[in-house]
Automatic annotation (TrEMBL):
Region feature Disordered, mapped onto this chain: 40-66
Record domain Insertion element IS150 protein InsJ-like helix-turn-helix: where: 9-59
GO annotation terms (biological process): DNA integration; DNA transposition
Species of provenance: Oncorhynchus tshawytscha (Chinook salmon)
Name used for this protein in its record: Tc1-like transposase DDE domain-containing protein
InterPro entries: Homeodomain-like_sf, InsJ-like_HTH, RNaseH_sf, Tc1-like_DDE_dom, Transpos_IS630-like, Transposase_5, Transposase_Tc1-like
GO molecular function, one term: DNA binding
Domain Transposase Tc1-like: from-to ranges: 66-137
Sequence ranges assigned to domain Tc1-like transposase DDE in this UniProt record: 147-291
Length: 339
């Protein structure tokens, strides 16, 4: 019979002992009259109202098949549950269901989540990252607050991070086996923006029409935004990554002519730049708006508005995490970090 909650069983027993008819008791607790009769019979035989023990639904897989499911998905993190279900025969059907596979994986602590997408790191990249972290791990907060972290980012109207579902345990979302490496990140109809943040300041958010090359970076970003900012704060250092628009000779000569100090930066290291977390925060704030943007013009306006709504304390907390980021790179031997 269907399980009746314990408080209703006690209530029904009191009604029966009070002289109520079985049908009236069943109507009062909204259950079948046979349930009440079995409850009364169980109380007479055992002296309690606890529900009888049940064997539960029989398992359609053997212990050996359970181990096979768990082992195969640990060896191949991108294996789909439907693929495993096709090769395991069921008790009453030609094969088990994909949900059964997911249940067995959940019992082993494996859960399907989107993989972390990172850039490909060669041996040379790892060595550069490790040497850079060794050089800057002893920098203090006072040193990092003199750095202006800058970068460009592209925001799409449609969501999706390109991650592929992958099975991993709760403690290993950033493990090498659970990381998807790509040379290039793609997007759809979108808006590119540039910005800079530091411990106590931030620049304007600049909307970039189209793509960014060295000439546009020099004329549209450095000249009107970066140089005036650094002239107002002469003790600060510029940080930008090794994109071709940043490392072109014309850009280097432009910065040298204006005595702009540039922080050396290792290749393929977006996880070291705290502004990457600002882009993530900005994206979440835009998507959480009551009326989401419907076209690129509205998206650009929403990005500029939300950029100004981010508190300076949030930016300061990200800049202060640089020492922990350097330590994480050294612990990973120059590899990927969870930052």
């Amino acid at each position: 019979m269907p399980r009746v909650p314990s408080h209703l069983r006690e209530r029904a027993l009191g009604m029966l002992q009070g002289g109520m008819r079985t049908a009236d008791v069943a109507r009062a607790i909204n259950c079948n009259v046979r349930n009440v009769r079995r409850l009364r019979q169980r109380y007479r035989e055992t002296g309690q109202t606890a529900d009888r023990p049940r064997s539960g639904r029989p398992r359609v897989t053997t212990p050996a098949e359970d181990r096979y499911i768990q082992t195969s998905h640990q060896q191949d993190r991108y294996r789909m549950a439907t693929t495993t279900a096709r090769v395991i025969p069921g008790t009453h059907n030609p094969s088990i269901s994909a949900q059964t596979v997911r249940n067995r994986l959940r019992e082993a602590g494996l859960k399907a989540c989107r993989s972390v997408v990172r850039q490909v790191l060669t041996r040379r990249h790892r060595q550069q990252r490790r040497l850079w972290a060794q050089t800057h791990r002893r920098w203090t907060r006072q040193d990092w607050q003199k750095v202006l972290f800058t970068d460009e980012s592209r925001f799409c109207l449609t969501g999706g991070d390109g991650g592929i579902p992958i099975y991993h345990q709760r403690i290993e979302p950033y493990a090498e086996a659970c990381t998807l490496e790509r040379d290039r990140f793609e997007g759809g109809g979108s808006v590119m923006v540039w910005g800079g943040v530091s411990q106590h300041h931030r620049t304007e958010l600049v909307v970039i029409a189209g793509n960014l090359n060295a000439v546009r970076y020099r004329e549209d970003i450095l000249l009107p935004h970066v140089v005036p900012f650094l002239q107002a704060h002469p003790d600060m250092t510029l940080q930008h990554d090794n994109a071709t628009s940043h490392t072109a000779r014309s850009v280097r000569d432009f910065l040298e002519d204006r005595n702009v100090s540039v922080l050396p930066w290792p290749e393929k290291s977006p996880d070291l730049n705290p502004i990457e977390h600002v882009w993530d925060l900005l994206d979440r704030r835009v998507r959480a708006r009551a009326i989401p943007p419907r076209n690129v013009q509205e998206l650009a306006g929403a990005l500029v508005e939300e950029w100004g709504n981010i508190s300076q304390q949030e930016l300061a907390n990200l800049v202060q995490s640089m020492r922990r980021g350097c330590t994480a790179v050294l612990n990973a031997a120059g590899g990927h970090t969870r930052y």
